[in-house]
Design a protein that fits this description.
Length: 156
């Protein structure tokens, strides 16, 4: 495959991951992560969600997605600044996740207030016999300053 074709395949895998999250499709999310069936050297799966400790191993990582999906009524990702870097059988995707999400409201059957969040993410993929699979995901919130606040001069 050409470099351009490989980049497109990685981009498609990355997009499939976020689309599965939006649908709450744990089966597809699971299929997109490297598994023991992919054979060695696919150990060391890791994941960091914003505000969470580092998670290791397929079991911990997939449980975390099950918890997120069970507690998120609505989520939508608008990806910006997507960059793909390839090095042999490894691909690194960096992006900004512009997230819109909401949980259930107190009244049953209604969606609670929607909340926006800005997160930067790094997704590491490995090439397997079944295509590109997630090996590591690391997401960190972007902290923004209040526009009304100005930094103090001279320190504290």
């Amino acid at each position: 495959m050409t470099h351009e074709t490989e980049t497109e395949a990685v981009t498609a895998a990355n997009t499939a991951f976020y689309e599965a999250m939006e649908r709450g499709d744990l089966e597809t999310v699971s299929a997109l992560w490297i598994s023991d069936a992919d054979g060695p050297p696919y150990s060391g799966i890791s994941c960091v969600h914003p505000g969470w400790p580092m998670l290791f191993g397929r079991g911990q990582v997939l449980r975390s997605y099950a918890v997120i999906m069970a507690n998120t009524e609505y989520i939508q990702f608008f990806l910006t600044d997507v960059r793909v870097s390839l090095a042999g059988d490894v691909a690194v995707v960096t992006c900004t996740e512009n997230i819109l999400s909401g949980g259930p409201a107190e009244d049953e059957g209604e969606l609670g207030p929607l909340v926006g969040q800005l997160v930067v993410a790094t997704n590491v993929f490995r090439r397997t016999a079944d295509g590109w699979k997630l090996w590591s995901h690391h997401a960190s919130p972007v902290l923004t300053e209040d526009e009304d606040e100005t930094p103090s001069e001279g320190g504290s």
